[in-house]
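Structure (tokenized):
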């Protein structure tokens, strides 16, 4: 089975840096095949015989902590799950016209409708969100950098960890 793995808060602003070549080597030492990274922000694809993404998350998290001294969350999806996420995009026009301002934020846990509604009510700008299967889609028409719809705010309202990738990256991960 092929997997997409996203590391939370890695190589962003000089915090918790891990060299992607070392991450690939770690994956190979763990017995995974065809380990590949994309960009320098914690995007990884690999093949494994295991079929439990949650178990794989724990395995990667423990290995990264032991090997690099970095505590980070992994959010892992199977290739079919990733393809389903892409197909479920509720903002197709924005994906085409403004892909760098459309984020997908996969979550560690399932998301309830009440949590999505609470997050939507907390939005102070022109951002729009929609809940998906263990993810949130967020469009930032005025840009992400100055938005008040931060990962911290999103996690507080959803009650689970998330990590965001823009639409361009989401699509690149689908073919890596």
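Design, position by position:
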């Amino acid at each position: 089975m092929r997997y997409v793995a996203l590391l939370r808060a890695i190589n962003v602003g000089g915090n918790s840096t891990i060299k992607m070549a070392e991450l690939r080597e770690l994956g190979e030492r763990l017995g995974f095949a065809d380990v590949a990274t994309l960009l320098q922000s914690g995007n990884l694809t690999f093949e494994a015989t295991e079929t439990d993404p949650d178990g794989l998350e724990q395995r990667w998290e423990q290995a990264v902590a032991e090997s690099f001294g970095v505590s980070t969350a992994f959010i892992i999806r199977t290739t079919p799950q990733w393809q389903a996420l892409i197909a479920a995009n509720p903002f197709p026009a924005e994906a085409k016209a403004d892909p760098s301002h459309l984020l997908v934020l996969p979550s560690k846990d399932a998301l309830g409708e009440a949590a999505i509604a609470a997050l939507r009510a907390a939005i102070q700008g022109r951002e729009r969100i929609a809940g998906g299967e263990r993810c949130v889609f967020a469009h930032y028409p005025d840009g992400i950098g100055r938005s008040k719809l931060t990962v911290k705010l999103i996690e507080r309202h959803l009650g689970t960890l998330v990590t965001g990738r823009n639409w361009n990256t989401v699509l690149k991960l689908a073919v890596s």
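Reviewer-requested clarification: Residues 41 and 48 are 22 Å apart (CA to CA). The chain has seven helices and eight strands.
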